Structure formats: C-alpha cells, structure tokens
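Lecture 7, part 2: worked example. A protein chain together with zinc ion.
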Amino acid sequence: MTSKKKSLSPEEQARVLGELRRDVETRQKSYRERALQMFPHLCASCGREFDGKRLRELTVHHKDHNHDNNPPDGSNWELLCMYCHDHEHEKYLMAGHSGGSGGEIQLAPSIFSPFAALDSLLKPAPDEAKIEETARTTNEGTASPPDPSKP
Ligand SMILES: [Zn+2]
Ligand SMILES: [Zn+2]
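Predicted complex, written out as structure tokens:
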C-alpha cells in the first residue's frame, strides 16, 4: 500500500520547476523559431547576415519591449544581432522608458484607436446629458412665475 503525500518531495518539486522552466524556454524558442521563419536572417539594424552556426547570434527583439506580446503576424518582432539588440535596449533605458509610452510604441498607433472609438460609442455624448440635466435643474430653480414688472 502506498501512502499518499500531500506535499511534493524535493525531487518532485525540482522536476515540476524544471518542467515550468522548460515550458517558458519552449515558448521563447517557438517565437524565435517563428520569427526566423518569417523574416530574412539579417539584423534589422546593422544589416549583417546570419546563417548556420552564427544564426544563434541573431535574436528576437520585441518592438514594444513587452516579451509577452507575441502576435502571430510577427508585427512586434524584429531580428537583431546581439550587439544591436543590446544597443536597442540601452537606448530604450537611456530615453527614460519604464514600460511607458513613446518611442517604438508609436509605430503601432492603430492598435489604440479602435478602443478610443469604442469608448465614445459606449458613452454617447456625456456633455449633452449633463447640459440637459443642468437645464432642468435651472428650470426648477427658477420655477417662480415670470417677473410681472418686466414688459
Ligand atoms: Zn546588428
Ligand atoms: Zn529586445
């Protein structure tokens, strides 16, 4: 009879951790693989070509610096050699970016406009509603009969 353990043994924990790590690696590898299939094997910045063993030096850069943003059309990817990739991130940090807007994110403004449009659709003319309300309140406030002294 085998006893059921509630907690994982250290070996099992190590195995689960290893699997998780492998999962992340696989994910990163898969987008790199996809990017390499999609783009010509050269650095988008310095234009050097990479093939064979040197292909390892070609890395996938995320244009918006968000490594979780991996659209299937590759629009957030750029192939950069390790040196240009480093430089790209230095530039980003030097410009004082901390995950905010500006810089490369301006390359894809179309992503944001649909939501702006949707926002205005959901909240139709909030100003008009306010004006109407104000008008009603004003009418009630001055509900007294018109001044008879006026012609
Ligand atoms: Zn380069
Ligand atoms: Zn990068």
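Residues 10-38 form the longest helix (29 residues). Residues 61-62, 85, 88-89 surround zinc ion (ligand 2) (CB under 6 Å). Keep this in mind for problem set question 3.
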